[in-house]
């Protein structure tokens, strides 16, 4: 079994200044998302005195925090999700084939590395990248696939996904 190549995306770099007796000390923080574009996704935030070290630390931490996200047909969500984490509120909606990723910067980066190709997303409340990424991750991991729903109900997948004619 070959290991899939992970795609890394840097979302945000922040310069932190500490004023001391001799002048200013600079440090940097980095927010990164990592994914294999087939449903595995991880996000992390790390700090260091150098930019490259902060990015590397965030990348390594995100790789250790990979989670699996169920995708419908390998391209979109199974159902719409409205989730709140901290002050960040995110609305994620499944979209038909060919729609593309209609989302803001932080949500777009998360969707690209996760392998989501068709989605409509809106960020409400906080515009802080950290809160938006956390809310997006919580929303993506909180969705249910038909397989997991049928397992919880003790039924066959065909029974839970049956079409209702009215």
Uncertain segments: none
**String of helices and strands:** EEEHEEEEHEHHH
Largest sheet: 4 strands, antiparallel
Outline, from the CA principal axes?
elongated
- Ends: how far apart? 47 Å
Cα gyration radius (Å): 19 Å
Number of helical segments with 4 or more residues = 5
Number of strands: 8
Overall structural class, as computed from helix and strand content, comes to: alpha+beta
Strand content: 35-45%
Whole-number average pLDDT? 89
Strand line-up across the major sheet: 1-2-3-4
Helix percent reads 25-40%
What is this entry, summarized?
The chain is 30% helix and 36% strand. The protein has helices at 51-64, 105-114, 129-142, 146-153, 157-160; strands at 7-20, 23-35, 40-48, 67-68, 81-85, 88-94, 101-102, 119-125.
Describe the protein in words.
The chain is of the alpha+beta class and 166 residues long. Helix content is 30%, strand content 36%. It is built from five helices and eight strands. It has helices at 51-64, 105-114, 129-142, 146-153, 157-160; strands at residues 7-20, 23-35, 40-48, 67-68, 81-85, 88-94, 101-102, 119-125. A four-stranded antiparallel β-sheet has the order 1-2-3-4, sandwiched between helices. A four-stranded mixed β-sheet has the order 5-6-8-7. The radius of gyration is 19 Å and the shape is elongated. The termini are far apart. The model has no long low-confidence stretch (mean pLDDT 89).
